[in-house]
Amino acid sequence: MDWARVRADFPILERTVHGKPLVYLDSAATSQKPRPVVRAVCDYYERLNANVHRGAYQLSEEATEAYEGARTRMARFLHASDPSEVVFVRGATEAINVVATSLSRERLKSGGRVVTTVMEHHSNIVPWQLLRADRGLAVDFVDIDEDGRLDLADLDRKLARRPDLVTVTYVSNVLGTVNPIRSIAEKVHAAGSLLLVDAAQAVPHRRVDVQALGADLLVFSGHKMLGPTGIGVLWARRSLLDTLPPALGGGEMIREVHQDRVAFRDPPAKFEAGTPNIAGAIGLAAAADYLDALGWEAIAEHEQRMLTRAVRRAQEDFPGRLTTYGPPPGSDREAVFAFAVDGVHAHDVASIVDAQGVAIRSGQHCAGPLMDRLKVSALSRASPYIYNSEADIDRLFDALGEVVRIFAGHERRAPVAG
Length: 418
What we know:
Elements (H helix, E strand, L loop, with lengths): L2 H6 L7 E2 L2 E2 L1 E2 L10 H14 L9 H21 L7 E4 L2 H15 L6 E5 L8 H10 L2 E5 L9 H8 L5 E5 L11 H10 L3 E5 L11 H4 L3 E5 L10 E5 L1 H6 L10 E5 L2 E4 L13 H17 L1 H22 L4 E4 L11 E5 L4 H9 L3 E2 L1 E3 L4 H7 L4 E4 L7 H17 L12
Helix pairs in contact: 2-10, 3-10, 4-5, 11-14, 12-14
């Protein structure tokens, strides 16, 4: 694979920042967009812009065909049994909230129980905490081991309480840990529970086959996998979607409305209230085309090279001064590189490397319980993607050398909240 050619598909990377060529290493927060995705979105607005499903005129019919074609494309991307299992939402956060609201009306009654993990993004914690406050729902957290892997023995202990739902991230947005979803699904189903998977950090990096994984529901955001912002997918088994009530009400999702009754359309329409993000869905389908064309093995090998280089340079360049988090490079670790520079707050690290043209993330990464578990207040995080190179990793570590130089002689201390 000619990764330099891939990089050329991303016009924003031609920018300079503070007079230096941009090195973008924050793809776990949001990915950059290749020209084919930008063209697909622009093409919709320039040629097809009309509302979908209801219009009895050619433009609306063409827009509907493109929108439903995007659904079919995403079903193929996930190896779903049927396009009707794909519900378009604004992103993983909305998808999880839709699931929480819908389940609270059908399955998660007062006294119910949900199991999640300490490595979850806030999007997969806060909706359940809201139900805990409103409905008395019990929420249990599965721990991790010292390498940042999920403690499966602790999961077994939590499953012994027969929860209604288990919800777990496929890939940690901080540690890069890849959780063994298939084996987790077998444990969860043996306990009589449903399994919801947050795949927001998985779909950009590996082929996700919902039938092989064995989960009941899976969610992800488009903007992390080269797609537009404001679009994502909630996938669920059709038999489950048939039984769940809608979470939102309004146009598009109804069959008929009268003063004394309402009837809803079949899934997925039942869960898509209001005018959808038509352009976003079309752009997301274009992103799926782009990633599939690159090849998932090539993507994985490229990202592992960058992760391995980052880990090696951390060990060689800053022994005893830079602490890294997560499992070692390998099949159960994606290229998310979280670290702390001893005696330097993560925000200071990000600010100094930004002055060198390198963009990384700093803070709690929407993972407060994980920060508590790791006993840190904040971490720095570099997350390379398909448009990065090992040279970008070297730029980062050259900039980190400047961080260490600036803070040389300062008393070493744990990061403090900023």
